Amino acid sequence: MSLEGEFDYYLKNAHGDIVMIAGSDGTVVKEYAYDAFGNEKPADDDTGPPPEPGDPPAPAPDPDDNPFRYCGEYWDEESGTYYLRARYYAPRLGRFTQEDTHWNTSNNIYGDSPGENPMPKITAIMQSGNLYVYCVNNPVKNTDPSGYSIIMDLYWIFLAISTQITSPLTATVNTAFENEATLNPQYSEQILAANPFKDKAVNPGVQSIVNEAAKYDLQTDLTVSVGVGKNTSFDTGISQTASMSKMQSYTTGHIGGSAGLSASPFPINASASVGIVENFNGINSITGPRYTAGGSAGFVGYSYSSWFGDDTRTRSLNFSTNPIGVYVGIDYSWHIGGK
Q1: Pick from 194, 279, 264: nearest CA to 230
Q2: pLDDT value at position 68?
Q3: Whether the Cβ atoms of residue 246 and residue 305 lie closer than 8 Å to each other
Q4: What is the pLDDT of residue 163?
Q5: N or C terminus of the chain: which is more exposed, having fewer CB within 10 Å?
Q6: How far apart are CA 103 and CA 96, in angstroms?
Q7: What are the backbone angles phi and psi of residue 190, rounded to the nearest 5°?
Q8: 68: closest CA among 77, 56, 59, 57?
Q9: Residue 49 — very low, low, confident or very high, per pLDDT cuts 50/70/90?
Q10: Any bridge partners for residue 7, and if so which?
C-alpha cells in the first residue's frame, strides 16, 4: 500500500484479518483488532486514565483511509459493510444485507431437479434456515470471500486432519511406554520421560479405545494354499503376533496341509486374517504343531487354531480368494524373528 509516496505493508493474522500496518522502516503505523464477527475494537485495552474536569478535549483521531480490514476484505465506511463480491456483509448484525443468491427453487435440496444437482452441498443445507447468515454462524473457523459459500480456514483443516492422524498414534505410543514402564518399574521414570509424545494432546476417546485394544494379544497372518488332489491342499504362510501388554512382537512361519470342501475355481488360493491370541505366553506358546479349522462364505470367513500341548488359541477373521468352503488341517509353526 502506498500513502503519500511511501510504502506501507499489511500484516495479517491466521484468519486473514489485517491486524497491523507497518511502515517501510518497520515502525507500526496502525493496529487493528476485531471480534469474531468482524466488529472493530481497540487494539489494546490500555485506554489510559479517565479525563479530569477542566482537561482539554482529546484530539480527534486521524482519519483512517485504509479500506482493507476484517478478513482482508474491502470495508465501506459509509454503509458500515464489507464488500464480499456477491453480497455485502454487516458485522454489526453478523449477517449479510441480501439473501443468499445461491439459494433458489431449482436447488436439489428442494428436490426439484435431482438430475442437475444429484448431490446437494452440505454448507447450503446448513444455511437453509437463514438466507442472510454469515459463515454458517461460525466466523471463527470460516470465511466467505465470495458471498456464496464458506471456506474453512486452512489452519482448522490442518488441525482436523492432523488430529485424526496423530491422535491414534499418540495414544498407541503413550500406552506402549506406560506398559514398558509397568514391566520395568525400576526404570519407569526414565522410560516415561523418553516418550516423545508425552506432552501431546490426545482425544480421550481414542486413548480409551487403544487402552482397551492393548489388553488383547493380536495376530495377523498371510497364507497361500496350493491344491493337491480334489479336496486337499498344501499350506504355507507367515504370521505376526504382537502383545502390547507384554511388549513383545514375534514373526513366525508355518507349513502344513488341510482337507475339506472348496468351491474355489483357482488351483492356488490366498487368505489374510487378523485375530486374537488367547493365553499368549511368549514365543514358545505359538511355535510347534497345531491344528486348524475354518470356513468361508462370500470370501469372508472365520478360523480357529490351537497348539498341541498348550492352551494357546487363535480366533481370526479371514479374507480369502476361496468364495466358499470349510477345512481342517495340521501345520507346524517356527520362530523367524522378533522378541
Answers
A1: 264
A2: 94
A3: no
A4: 62
A5: C
A6: 14
A7: -65, -40
A8: 77
A9: low
A10: 2
Cell of 254: 508355518
> Which string of b and e fits 283-320 if b means at least 16 CB within 10 Å?
bebbbeebebebbbeeeebebebbbeeeebbbbbebeb
Q: Which residue has the cell 497361500?
A: 224
User: Strand 2-3 relative to strand 87-90: parallel, antiparallel, unpaired?
Assistant: unpaired
Superfamily of domain covering 217-338: Rhodococcus equi virulence-associated protein (2.40.128.480)
Write out the E strands in the chain: 2-3, 6-12, 18-23, 28-31, 33-34, 40-41, 74-76, 81-84, 87-90, 95-96, 142-143, 151-152, 217-227, 232-243, 248-262, 268-278, 288-297, 300-307, 313-320, 324-338
User: In this structure, what DSSP letter does residue 190 have?
Assistant: H
- Each residue's pLDDT tens digit, 55-110: 666 555 557 889 999 999 999 999 999 999 989 999 999 999 998 876 655 444 44
Number of H helices, E strands in the chain: 4, 20
Q: What is the DSSP letter of 133?
A: B
State the Cα–Cα distance between residues 310 and 288, nearest whole angstrom: 10
User: Mapping DSSP to helix (H, G, I), strand (E, B) and coil, where does residue 96 land?
Assistant: strand
Tell me, rounded to whole angstroms, the distance of Cα 94 from its chain centroid: 31
